[in-house]
Amino acid sequence: MNPNVFDDPRITAVGLLFEVHAGLSARFATQLEEHGLSPVEFEVLTRLSRSPGNQLRMTDLAAQTSLSTSGVTRVVDRMERDGLVARRACPSDRRSSYAVVTAAGLRRLDESLPGHLQLIQDWFTGQLDPAALSALLDGLRRVRDAVHPCATAGSGGSAPAEGAAASARC
Amino acid sequence: MNPNVFDDPRITAVGLLFEVHAGLSARFATQLEEHGLSPVEFEVLTRLSRSPGNQLRMTDLAAQTSLSTSGVTRVVDRMERDGLVARRACPSDRRSSYAVVTAAGLRRLDESLPGHLQLIQDWFTGQLDPAALSALLDGLRRVRDAVHPCATAGSGGSAPAEGAAASARC
DNA sequence: CGGGGAATATTGCCGAGGCTATAGTTGCTG
DNA sequence: CAGCAACTATAGCCTCGGCAATATTCCCCG
């Protein structure tokens, strides 16, 4: 084997991207932990609270997160136990049920969001001058549109809050 | 709560980065799976095979991956069972043991690397013209140097192959 | 040189989450 | 309208991997 494969610029490019992701994830997790939230729970709160009626069917919630439907069942179990969300029967389809953010869930999200935004500012967007940041985001957007089979066609529009998997609403 | 927090450009920036990461991770995992490797196993093979003697002490391997030491113990257990690595006693320190890549491990890595590089080319680096790619990488490098407490001071040098955690050799 | 603190690998125990099977609904179609 | 395929949520079982405890070894300092 060629011992220099690992100096291939493609490898270093991916390494860079993954290191940034790992670093940011770790900091986010630490900050969210202070508010008693895991990254997944934060993502669920985010997705629900930006949806009409602060609710989403379990399936749709799964489609917008990095979780399978059974994973959503379980995280909603935990969050319901903790009072952050509640289940509501869907009137039009008795197979479905809604997950709704509770007042406590909204409060929790409000508490953690400022720190979260500050963290992004401090460690990501604030590290670059506007031109460099814009170039970075343009590049990411292009790659995202390619790699993400179902990216919002508008291409610049609403990006998910965090950790969204390859399966966001298509 | 301000309903427009989620349109904050900081949120969309992080969302973009995380979506790209998720998309690439998923494609990498699929391709590696065809060669019977998980992302973690691929990372272990990569780290070992780029190390002198194709070996690394368990602790050092843990420091260079996204795993804790017990996680390394376990993944090496599995890979030893599958014949991809072997354990060797460390002559100078009887507490330590080396993980060594076997010939089968090297072969497995050789088989999967071309497809991996092709994937990076197809979905990441090849999506941008050289100037845009360079701008993207410059931005990532700056953010990496900030968020990664122990980035290689050279700042442009050797990046890890994949999924490296915040704990790479410092 | 002897004893205590640090380092190393491993193991037990646990939570997270994926896959698959399952039960309950829905809606289409013959 | 009966039956059947598709959809929805959930539960069982499994793997992965982290934390804390443990045994072993090393090293430094009195």
Overview of the structural elements:
2 copies of one chain form a homodimer. The longest helix of chain A is centred in the first third of the chain and has 26 residues, at 9-34. Chain A starts with 8 loop residues before the first helix and ends in a 23-residue tail after the last helix. Chain A has 170 residues and is mainly alpha-helical. In chain A, strands 1-3-2 form a 3-stranded antiparallel β-sheet. Chain A is built from 6 helices and 3 strands. Chain A has one domain (5-147): Arc Repressor Mutant, subunit A (Orthogonal Bundle), CATH 1.10.10. Chains A and B meet through α1, α5 and α6 of A and α1, α5 and α6 of B. Chains A, B: Residues 10-145 form the HTH marR-type domain. Chains A, B: This is MarR family transcriptional regulator. Chains A, B: Residues 158-170 have a biased composition (Low complexity).
CATH fold assignment of chain A = Arc Repressor Mutant, subunit A
End-to-end separation of chain A = 42 Å
Overall pLDDT of chain A: 89
Rg of chain A over CA atoms, rounded to whole Å, is 18 Å
CATH superfamily of chain A: Winged helix-like DNA-binding domain superfamily/Winged helix DNA-binding domain
Specify the structural class of chain A.
Answer: mainly alpha
Largest beta-sheet characterization of chain A: 3 strands, antiparallel
Please write the CATH class name of chain A. Answer: Mainly Alpha
How helical, in percent, are the residues of chain A?
Answer: 55-70%
Q: Specify the oligomeric state.
A: homodimer
How many DSSP-defined strands of chain A?
A: 3
Cα shape of chain A: globular
